[in-house]
Batch of 2 targets.
Target 1
Amino acid sequence: MAKWEKWPGASARRPSLQVLVALATIYDCDVEDLLDMDDRRALPNGDLRILQHHAPEQPRTTPHPPAPAEPEPDRVLAAAAESATWAQWAESTNVGDIALEQLFADVQTLARDYLTDDPLLMFRRTCNLRDRVFRLLEGHQPPRQSVDLYVSAGYLCGLLAWMSSDLGNLRAADTHGRTAWLCAETAGHKALRAWVCSTRSKVAVWDGRLKDAVNHARRGALVSADGTVGALLACQEADAWSMLGARSEAEGALTRAEHAREVMTGTDEIGGLFSCPQARQENYAAGVHLLIGQPQAALREARSALDLLATQRVRAYGTEAQIRISQAAALLACGEPDGVMEALLPVLAMPAERRMGPVTQRMSDLAAAMGHGAAADASATTVARRAIVEWCADSAPRHLALSSGDGPN
């Protein structure tokens, strides 16, 4: 009502004929009593002519002579004017098609840059863009444009879920994941549904909810989406099964991942974090084979993944670090402790702000594994283990936890 009362000011909204009639009834006055000279100048001539024939439907508290019956042609004109007024509102929008296209391009940029840039900086940029999209959704636009905004919002919340998990805040990650799923369902967007399931499966794995991780991955696999998401979902299912000690289920999921890549159609509409290159798939396979007791296969896959990564234009430092950790763990399991330190040198050289939660956790697991087995007392093992422990003590999640709290929400 405040916007109607400010009309015809710049930040106000012109009341429709129906609104003016309703207000006159509420205030027990004639419609003309609500209009001053500025209002009359701003109203279209057609509306003014129609209002001259308006008569209140409710009885007034003070007696007035009965108004003459409204001529039938004027009622027809009034109805047409009301429809025209509503159509004008329905056609209006607070965002244009070019702006929507730019927003989607910005989402693609964030998903790509997160693989190589400072994670906290990328988190803040993603939050800022998400807030812009949310503000637009709170305004008015045609349904087609609303769907596009929901898709962008869903991918942005998916990015924030993944980032929050990497930065060690799994509760926040789960919240972003649920919001991303709401956006995917509202937009009815297949690819977004599948990638949100992938993101939620990843969060569940690192939260120790392994059966939830399997269910999220399987739910996403039921969506017929283009691109590499099918291969990634099967890899994530295999990862969860291997942590549960279910060897046959893990191997079956890896086989489905290979099949998904063979029958893949289309491309990934976002890319970057929301894509699964062959090197990323080999990284998952290496981790799974390590957990189900097949270190030789894991070593082959880790080396293959590093070769593939060398051919990629964009090298994701998180994926590369995990591949090298798998390589080191496989060497240790194969009785080759002397090669462990060499495999880990690029990881140990990572700056603290890039040492994400999953990488730090895998390094901690490797250090724990070094304390057992035939090579536990070897000098190479001792040196590598000490270096890993010192490395894990200075990580991005730890820095964030000790900061003022300007981090994942």
Target 2
Amino acid sequence: MHQVLTTQMLRGLVDSIRTAALDFAIELQLANPDAGSVGGPTIETDPKVASVVYNVTNNVTGHGTNIAAGSSITQTSTVNAGDRDGLREELTKVGLDEASAEEFANALDTDGSVEGPRVSR
């Protein structure tokens, strides 16, 4: 995969992250003025803080699946279907040993889907 990132794109990304972090801090501060202070509230001790804090997990699989936030965004992705060597390489990068990576690749071939019974095991 290859994508050129311009300086303006990176500055925009940093600005978006900075704005999101500031918005989050303001929400926490409104929920409890001591939020962020040493010994301040946690989600266990103050239910108002818990309503501001949330987690999002996205699992992206398949061809052409892109996620973006903002306006005027263009993305391109390429998935090389059937690239077992690439799959095994990525699996070892996330911590599988070579034998486990090969076993997973075989299970994926057999099931034909990431939701098959062998892959799930």
